[in-house]
Amino acid sequence: MPPKKKRVASETAGAGSSKKRAGKKPVHEEIESSSHLSEPAPGSDEHEVSEENPQIDNEPDEGLQVIVLGSSGGPFEDRTSSFLVRSLSTNWREKSMVAIDAGSLLAGILHVLETSVKGGTGPFANLPMDEIQTNIGRALHIFRNIIGSICITHPHMDHIAGLIINTQALENTSSPKTVACLQSVIDALKQYVFNGVLWPNLTDDQGAGLITFHTLIEGGNPMLGSEDQIGYDELCEKLLIKCYKVTHGECAQTYDSTERRWRRRSSVCPRHAHQQPDPAAAEEQPLTGLHERTESSAFFIRDRVSNKEIIIFGDIEPDSVSHGEWNKRVWKEAAASLSSGALQAIFIECSYDDSVSDQYLYGHLCPRHLVAELRTLAGFVEHGDETLSDLVVFITHVKVKDNVGADDTPGVDILKQVRKHCSDAKLECRIELALRGVSYYF
After folding, report:
1. Is 198 among the domain residues?
2. Which Gene Ontology MF annotations are present (predicted)?
3. Which of 129, 301, 401, 408 is the most buried (most CB within 10 A)?
């Protein structure tokens, strides 16, 4: 049975925060700035809470909760990419939460706890921790016991730094922490990170055994699941995940899938146009190796109880720049999920504003390309929602500029540009910034 559309609540960790529920659109109480984001989208005045959707004191009984630990693309290391996701029906049981990326993990959890008001507010308000006296102890409890798996989109430092440094906190726990990702990401972590040089080998591959790797099959494992959940991997209780490869630009190293090693690109084979992926063959050819591109991931995350779904992207470049169809494959799947009533929200990067030319995007999106990708998604949607009116799009991975003031929210210029492009394209999806310390309910 399709989930009921669409009520979204958000809760911050800031003082005086409370959960609010809006009709189809999210409402935010920003912890870093409330002045900029109160501006409505072009032609919209839907930032206010509807009177028919009053404040709520208890979180929903089912659906998904997303806690933003960090959604920055740098340069500050304490707020880089990391999201916590759980099925609300699990009621905070052990290993009921998955982390998507770990640029800021323990530090992000601690930030949320320290900015929450004493007396039971904030994203972790309903997690029983009264017997733990300190926020450091509470953060460690969440990391060790509540987070069951950590999914990594790609092995760049702003997505794995927390995983690396935090792993030592798993000593004396009852079982290793599962790290789930594409095989190329696993091999990069083994070869370059947990290698005894950059960091001790804390893996279960001839190491200390504090983490264990779980390979995610690109496009989903067809042997898992049934009906509309075929291909999904249940990494945490009642939380299903399917992974798709996307491209994050070219790299000086290429992944050899046969030897499962990364190798430096040959100096005698300079890149030429004919070495780019053939768009028509993108679905059949491997993403790495032949075309020397950095693999990243898009995770479809579904609540097994309510069937509600979100997508969280790692770093991603537009198909128009990669000359492939990697994103198109994701949008086809997303369109089917949206048409069925499952897809609630997309968390996707938009690192730069439109002043940056394509050659300096370095495998990222800017507003003009993000909206072009959303138009591709809209083109695949059936059953009457070609304007994406039932979808919420959260902007992530914003690069903090030098001229952002202490009281400003980074990315407001990007937000305005994306909203303007959406208005021009007659797309009605809600566009928001994914804000550090905020909890979203779907």
Report:
1. yes
2. 3',5'-cyclic-AMP phosphodiesterase activity; 3',5'-cyclic-GMP phosphodiesterase activity
3. 301
Contacts of 418 (CB under 8 A, 6+ apart): 350, 367, 370, 371, 393, 395, 431
Provide the residue count of the chain. 442
**Residue 170: CB partners within 8 Å, gap ≥ 6?**
144, 176, 177, 202, 210, 211
Q: Where are the beta strands (DSSP E) in 172-316?
A: 177-181, 211-215, 233-236, 239-250, 253-256, 261-264, 293-303, 309-313
Say if residue 305 is exposed, middle or buried (CB neighbours under 10 Å; 0-12, 13-18, 19+).
Answer: middle
Q: DSSP character for 341?
A: T
Q: Which two tokens stand for residue 132?
A: 């733990």
Cβ count near 267 (within 10 Å):
6
Long-range contact pairs involving 375-381 (C-beta distance under 8 Å, separation at least 24) = 375/425, 375/427, 376/319, 376/327, 376/328, 376/331, 377/331, 377/334, 377/335, 377/338, 378/427, 380/331, 380/332, 380/334, 380/335, 380/336, 381/335, 381/338, 381/339
Structure tokens, 200: 């001790």
pLDDT for the residue numbered 373: 96
Q: Domain for residue 156, yes or no?
A: yes
Look at residue 3 and tell me if it is in a domain: no
Structure letter (DSSP) for residue 397:
-
**Segments forming the whole domain that contains residue 98:** 8-441
Tokens of 48: 């206010």
**Domain containing residue 226: CATH number:** 3.60.15.10
**pTM of this prediction exceeds 0.85:** no
Mean pLDDT by 10 residues, the chain (442 residues): 54 45 38 33 34 45 94 85 96 96 96 77 87 94 97 95 96 94 95 95 95 95 86 94 90 59 40 38 42 84 96 92 88 95 96 90 91 95 83 93 61 94 96 95 96
Kind and range of the H or E run holding 394:
strand 392-396
Q: How many domains, the chain?
A: 1
For residue 414, how many other CB atoms are within 10 A of its CB? 23
